[in-house]
Write a structure and sequence with these properties.
192 residues, mainly alpha, Arc Repressor Mutant, subunit A, three-stranded antiparallel sheet, 8 helices
Protein backbone atom coordinates (compact mmCIF):
# COMPACT_ATOMS: atom_id res chain seq x y z
CA UNK A 1 0.00 0.00 0.00
CA UNK A 2 1.41 3.39 -0.99
CA UNK A 3 1.42 6.13 1.59
CA UNK A 4 0.61 9.69 0.68
CA UNK A 5 1.82 12.95 2.08
CA UNK A 6 -0.88 14.81 4.02
CA UNK A 7 -0.65 17.81 1.71
CA UNK A 8 -1.10 15.80 -1.51
CA UNK A 9 -4.50 15.35 -3.09
CA UNK A 10 -6.03 11.94 -2.26
CA UNK A 11 -6.16 11.26 -6.03
CA UNK A 12 -2.45 11.90 -6.46
CA UNK A 13 -0.30 8.88 -5.80
CA UNK A 14 3.35 9.65 -6.25
CA UNK A 15 6.05 6.99 -6.22
CA UNK A 16 7.82 6.81 -2.87
CA UNK A 17 11.10 8.30 -4.20
CA UNK A 18 9.18 11.37 -5.40
CA UNK A 19 7.43 11.70 -2.04
CA UNK A 20 10.87 11.48 -0.40
CA UNK A 21 12.16 14.23 -2.68
CA UNK A 22 9.26 16.49 -1.68
CA UNK A 23 9.89 15.78 2.00
CA UNK A 24 13.62 16.50 1.63
CA UNK A 25 12.86 19.75 -0.20
CA UNK A 26 10.55 20.82 2.62
CA UNK A 27 13.25 20.06 5.17
CA UNK A 28 15.75 22.11 3.14
CA UNK A 29 13.31 25.02 2.89
CA UNK A 30 12.67 24.89 6.64
CA UNK A 31 16.41 24.95 7.36
CA UNK A 32 16.89 27.87 4.95
CA UNK A 33 14.09 29.84 6.61
CA UNK A 34 15.62 29.23 10.04
CA UNK A 35 19.03 30.36 8.78
CA UNK A 36 17.42 33.57 7.53
CA UNK A 37 15.77 34.03 10.93
CA UNK A 38 19.14 33.58 12.66
CA UNK A 39 20.70 36.22 10.42
CA UNK A 40 17.88 38.70 10.88
CA UNK A 41 17.47 38.32 14.64
CA UNK A 42 20.93 37.25 15.84
CA UNK A 43 23.34 38.36 13.12
CA UNK A 44 24.73 34.87 12.52
CA UNK A 45 24.07 32.28 9.85
CA UNK A 46 23.44 28.62 10.63
CA UNK A 47 26.92 27.55 9.47
CA UNK A 48 28.55 30.27 11.61
CA UNK A 49 26.62 29.04 14.63
CA UNK A 50 27.55 25.42 13.83
CA UNK A 51 31.24 26.38 13.80
CA UNK A 52 30.96 28.29 17.08
CA UNK A 53 29.11 25.41 18.76
CA UNK A 54 31.70 22.90 17.52
CA UNK A 55 34.57 24.97 18.93
CA UNK A 56 32.62 25.35 22.17
CA UNK A 57 32.09 21.58 22.32
CA UNK A 58 35.67 20.53 21.52
CA UNK A 59 37.69 23.52 22.68
CA UNK A 60 40.43 25.14 20.68
CA UNK A 61 41.78 23.23 17.71
CA UNK A 62 43.14 23.50 14.24
CA UNK A 63 41.14 24.82 11.32
CA UNK A 64 41.61 21.47 9.56
CA UNK A 65 40.24 19.49 12.52
CA UNK A 66 37.26 21.86 12.71
CA UNK A 67 36.62 21.51 8.97
CA UNK A 68 36.66 17.70 9.18
CA UNK A 69 34.36 17.67 12.24
CA UNK A 70 31.62 19.64 10.45
CA UNK A 71 32.16 18.23 6.93
CA UNK A 72 33.30 21.45 5.25
CA UNK A 73 36.46 22.20 3.32
CA UNK A 74 39.22 24.05 5.07
CA UNK A 75 38.83 26.98 2.65
CA UNK A 76 35.10 27.28 3.42
CA UNK A 77 35.76 27.19 7.16
CA UNK A 78 38.54 29.76 6.76
CA UNK A 79 36.15 32.15 5.00
CA UNK A 80 33.54 31.77 7.73
CA UNK A 81 36.22 32.21 10.41
CA UNK A 82 37.35 35.44 8.71
CA UNK A 83 33.87 36.87 9.27
CA UNK A 84 33.62 35.54 12.83
CA UNK A 85 37.05 36.95 13.68
CA UNK A 86 36.06 40.36 12.25
CA UNK A 87 33.09 40.30 14.64
CA UNK A 88 35.33 39.49 17.60
CA UNK A 89 33.88 36.03 18.18
CA UNK A 90 36.96 33.89 17.43
CA UNK A 91 40.71 34.30 17.57
CA UNK A 92 43.30 32.51 15.48
CA UNK A 93 46.94 32.00 16.28
CA UNK A 94 49.84 29.95 14.98
CA UNK A 95 50.61 26.73 16.85
CA UNK A 96 53.79 26.92 18.90
CA UNK A 97 55.11 23.54 17.77
CA UNK A 98 54.30 23.99 14.07
CA UNK A 99 53.86 27.51 12.74
CA UNK A 100 52.04 26.18 9.66
CA UNK A 101 49.10 25.08 11.80
CA UNK A 102 46.47 27.64 12.76
CA UNK A 103 44.65 27.21 16.07
CA UNK A 104 41.17 28.70 16.47
CA UNK A 105 39.40 29.46 19.74
CA UNK A 106 36.40 31.40 21.02
CA UNK A 107 36.74 34.84 22.57
CA UNK A 108 35.28 35.71 25.97
CA UNK A 109 32.64 37.74 24.13
CA UNK A 110 31.67 34.64 22.14
CA UNK A 111 31.42 32.50 25.28
CA UNK A 112 29.00 35.08 26.72
CA UNK A 113 27.04 35.16 23.45
CA UNK A 114 26.74 31.36 23.31
CA UNK A 115 25.23 31.25 26.82
CA UNK A 116 22.06 32.79 25.37
CA UNK A 117 22.50 32.01 21.67
CA UNK A 118 19.63 30.41 19.78
CA UNK A 119 19.65 26.79 18.73
CA UNK A 120 20.86 25.77 15.31
CA UNK A 121 17.50 23.99 15.07
CA UNK A 122 14.06 25.57 15.20
CA UNK A 123 12.67 25.45 18.74
CA UNK A 124 9.39 23.83 17.67
CA UNK A 125 11.36 21.05 15.97
CA UNK A 126 13.47 20.47 19.08
CA UNK A 127 10.39 20.33 21.33
CA UNK A 128 8.67 17.87 19.01
CA UNK A 129 11.77 15.74 18.54
CA UNK A 130 12.38 15.52 22.30
CA UNK A 131 8.82 14.22 22.76
CA UNK A 132 9.52 11.29 20.41
CA UNK A 133 10.69 8.11 22.18
CA UNK A 134 14.45 7.54 22.04
CA UNK A 135 14.08 4.42 19.88
CA UNK A 136 12.16 6.47 17.29
CA UNK A 137 14.79 9.23 17.34
CA UNK A 138 17.41 6.58 16.60
CA UNK A 139 15.22 5.15 13.83
CA UNK A 140 14.98 8.60 12.18
CA UNK A 141 18.73 9.09 12.48
CA UNK A 142 19.41 5.63 11.04
CA UNK A 143 17.04 6.25 8.13
CA UNK A 144 18.72 9.57 7.34
CA UNK A 145 22.17 8.00 7.51
CA UNK A 146 21.04 5.16 5.25
CA UNK A 147 19.54 7.64 2.77
CA UNK A 148 22.81 9.57 2.81
CA UNK A 149 24.67 6.37 2.02
CA UNK A 150 22.27 5.34 -0.75
CA UNK A 151 22.63 8.74 -2.37
CA UNK A 152 26.42 8.47 -2.03
CA UNK A 153 26.13 11.81 -0.25
CA UNK A 154 28.30 10.79 2.68
CA UNK A 155 31.33 11.65 0.53
CA UNK A 156 29.97 15.07 -0.45
CA UNK A 157 31.22 17.99 1.55
CA UNK A 158 28.50 19.91 3.38
CA UNK A 159 29.78 23.07 1.67
CA UNK A 160 28.07 21.99 -1.54
CA UNK A 161 24.75 22.10 0.30
CA UNK A 162 25.58 25.38 1.96
CA UNK A 163 26.52 26.82 -1.43
CA UNK A 164 23.24 25.76 -3.00
CA UNK A 165 25.01 23.03 -4.95
CA UNK A 166 27.70 25.26 -6.45
CA UNK A 167 31.40 24.64 -6.25
CA UNK A 168 32.61 26.55 -3.21
CA UNK A 169 35.60 28.12 -4.96
CA UNK A 170 33.25 29.61 -7.54
CA UNK A 171 30.84 31.00 -4.95
CA UNK A 172 31.27 34.77 -4.70
CA UNK A 173 30.23 36.74 -1.65
CA UNK A 174 26.64 37.88 -1.90
CA UNK A 175 25.40 41.40 -1.76
CA UNK A 176 22.35 40.54 0.32
CA UNK A 177 23.07 42.37 3.53
CA UNK A 178 26.64 41.15 3.80
CA UNK A 179 25.73 37.49 4.26
CA UNK A 180 27.91 35.37 1.99
CA UNK A 181 26.20 32.76 -0.14
CA UNK A 182 28.52 30.09 1.22
CA UNK A 183 26.64 30.29 4.48
CA UNK A 184 23.26 29.09 3.35
CA UNK A 185 21.35 32.32 2.62
CA UNK A 186 20.56 33.07 -0.96
CA UNK A 187 20.73 36.57 -2.50
CA UNK A 188 17.46 38.44 -2.38
CA UNK A 189 16.20 36.19 0.41
CA UNK A 190 15.36 39.11 2.63
CA UNK A 191 18.08 38.22 5.13
CA UNK A 192 19.36 41.41 6.64
Amino acid sequence: MKTQSKSLSPRTELPIPEQMLIALRRITQSMDLHSRYLVKHHGLTGPQLIILREIQRKGEGTVGDLARAISLSQSTVTGILDRLEARGLVVRRRAHEDKRRVIVDLTDECHRFLETAPSIWREDFLRGFEEIPHWEQLMILTALQRLTSLMKADAIEAGAFLNGGRNEEAAPASTSGGVPEDEGVSPGSGAV
